[in-house]
Amino acid sequence: MLALYLREVKLGLRAGTGALTGVLFFLAVVAVMPFGVGPDLNLLSRIGPAVLWISALLASLLGLERLFQADREDGTLDLLVMADARHMLAFTVFVKCLAHWTAGVLPLVAVAPLLGLFMNVEPAGLAAATLTLLAGTPAITFIGAVGAALVVALPRGGLLVSVLVLPLTIPVLIFGVAASRGAVAEPDPFLQPFLILCALTLFFSVIGPAAAALALRHVD
Amino acid sequence: MRLAAEGLSGERGGERIFSGISFELESGRALAVTGPNGAGKTTLLRIIAGLLPAAEGRVTLSGDEERWPGVAGACHYLGHLNAMKAALTVEENLAFWRAFLGATGLFPQEALEAVGLGGIGHLPFAYLSAGQRRRTAIARLLVSHRPVWLLDEPTAGLDQASASRFSALMREHLAAGGIIVAATHLPLGFETVEELRMGKRQ
């Protein structure tokens, strides 16, 4: 399984499609936001964490449809399904998701504090937004895996994945933004939404791979 | 060890393409599945591999249930696609499959030498010719041990020398007690073969 993880990360980085596309998209969305909203620093710092979260959500949906499609195109998927007796397919999917997250989404989390500065978010808010992204974005990848598994046989499934997955990611977005706001806006709590966010990630880390494995087993 | 199929029927897209296929293979035996295009050779192999559900009938593997509890887990499947990543080197690809499928076979370098590709382990898979890609996929069969080989047009794209080298590898596998089911148009190049002729049903 470690071999699978390392290979997937290597592929994600080496093919040049994963990490950089997501980061550039993230950068583009956050960078144009102040131009659209206007130079009101108070407003920017208030909506900053939400903008970071929305952009990260959309950026991490990019490239999700390739999660299993590339494996199906070169025949790898057949062998992964057949190896079920040795490596449970749901666990294989889990490891693939983790690798996808490491190569494609972790860089987003890493640049989030920098981009938060563009939005005039104060240091505590930056830390909170980064922490919530770190805890919450894996859930998006696990949910996305289900969508990716469902459309694996379709040649242009990218948009369909986003449409399928987006409604399910709304709770993650709500609690992610609530926690990052809670860290700076005084009466709002930070810990409760943050813990629910962690719970969502744990919940989807089980449900997502299991559902995706079920879909992959019935591809054709 | 015995691989048996009883009354298998296969469907593609809701249409029955073959039915009533039965065979029994003891250790050391090979089955050549022949027939015109569209007769369902690939479908049959995929059903044996557990990648497609059988419409009727079942496939069983008996003899060593402790080590190989299921049919799919005991099979190597060499389909039309080579299951290699273009962005990785040949050796990285094989090393991954060896680690993932279980390191019970040859080392990648040895497996590459066995298929006559000794010197190219460091090249990205994308740089190889079609025949070399096929031979790399054949080398995958050697890096981890599986008693049953399911081969779909294994010699497609191979030159004469590589094809005869591959039949030597298949003979070795059979001599070691393996089982081979191969869908092919060409003779496999050895004697211990039963033939299953699949016709187009109208």
TrEMBL record, chain A:
<keyword id="KW-0201">Cytochrome c-type biogenesis</keyword>
<feature type="transmembrane region" description="Helical">
    <location>
        <begin position="159"/>
        <end position="178"/>
    </location>
</feature>
<feature type="transmembrane region" description="Helical">
    <location>
        <begin position="47"/>
        <end position="68"/>
    </location>
</feature>
<keyword id="KW-0812">Transmembrane</keyword>
<dbReference type="InterPro" id="IPR026031">
    <property type="entry name" value="Cyt_c_CcmB_bac"/>
</dbReference>
<feature type="transmembrane region" description="Helical">
    <location>
        <begin position="12"/>
        <end position="35"/>
    </location>
</feature>
<protein>
    <recommendedName>
        <fullName>Heme exporter protein B</fullName>
    </recommendedName>
</protein>
<comment type="function">
    <text>Required for the export of heme to the periplasm for the biogenesis of c-type cytochromes.</text>
</comment>
<keyword id="KW-0813">Transport</keyword>
<feature type="transmembrane region" description="Helical">
    <location>
        <begin position="190"/>
        <end position="216"/>
    </location>
</feature>
<dbReference type="GO" id="GO:0015232">
    <property type="term" value="F:heme transmembrane transporter activity"/>
</dbReference>
<keyword id="KW-1003">Cell membrane</keyword>
<feature type="transmembrane region" description="Helical">
    <location>
        <begin position="127"/>
        <end position="152"/>
    </location>
</feature>
<keyword id="KW-1133">Transmembrane helix</keyword>
<comment type="similarity">
    <text>Belongs to the CcmB/CycW/HelB family.</text>
</comment>
<keyword id="KW-0997">Cell inner membrane</keyword>
<dbReference type="InterPro" id="IPR003544">
    <property type="entry name" value="Cyt_c_biogenesis_CcmB"/>
</dbReference>
<dbReference type="GO" id="GO:0017004">
    <property type="term" value="P:cytochrome complex assembly"/>
</dbReference>
<dbReference type="Pfam" id="PF03379">
    <property type="entry name" value="CcmB"/>
</dbReference>
<dbReference type="GO" id="GO:1903607">
    <property type="term" value="P:cytochrome c biosynthetic process"/>
</dbReference>
<dbReference type="GO" id="GO:0005886">
    <property type="term" value="C:plasma membrane"/>
</dbReference>
<feature type="transmembrane region" description="Helical">
    <location>
        <begin position="89"/>
        <end position="115"/>
    </location>
</feature>
Automatic annotation (TrEMBL), chain B:
<dbReference type="GO" id="GO:0017004">
    <property type="term" value="P:cytochrome complex assembly"/>
</dbReference>
<dbReference type="Pfam" id="PF00005">
    <property type="entry name" value="ABC_tran"/>
</dbReference>
<keyword id="KW-0472">Membrane</keyword>
<keyword id="KW-1278">Translocase</keyword>
<feature type="domain" description="ABC transporter">
    <location>
        <begin position="3"/>
        <end position="201"/>
    </location>
</feature>
<keyword id="KW-0547">Nucleotide-binding</keyword>
<dbReference type="GO" id="GO:0016887">
    <property type="term" value="F:ATP hydrolysis activity"/>
</dbReference>
<dbReference type="GO" id="GO:0005524">
    <property type="term" value="F:ATP binding"/>
</dbReference>
<dbReference type="InterPro" id="IPR027417">
    <property type="entry name" value="P-loop_NTPase"/>
</dbReference>
<dbReference type="InterPro" id="IPR003439">
    <property type="entry name" value="ABC_transporter-like_ATP-bd"/>
</dbReference>
<dbReference type="InterPro" id="IPR005895">
    <property type="entry name" value="ABC_transptr_haem_export_CcmA"/>
</dbReference>
<keyword id="KW-0067">ATP-binding</keyword>
<dbReference type="InterPro" id="IPR003593">
    <property type="entry name" value="AAA+_ATPase"/>
</dbReference>
<dbReference type="GO" id="GO:0022857">
    <property type="term" value="F:transmembrane transporter activity"/>
</dbReference>
<keyword id="KW-0813">Transport</keyword>
<keyword id="KW-0201">Cytochrome c-type biogenesis</keyword>
<protein>
    <submittedName>
        <fullName>Heme ABC exporter ATP-binding protein CcmA</fullName>
    </submittedName>
</protein>
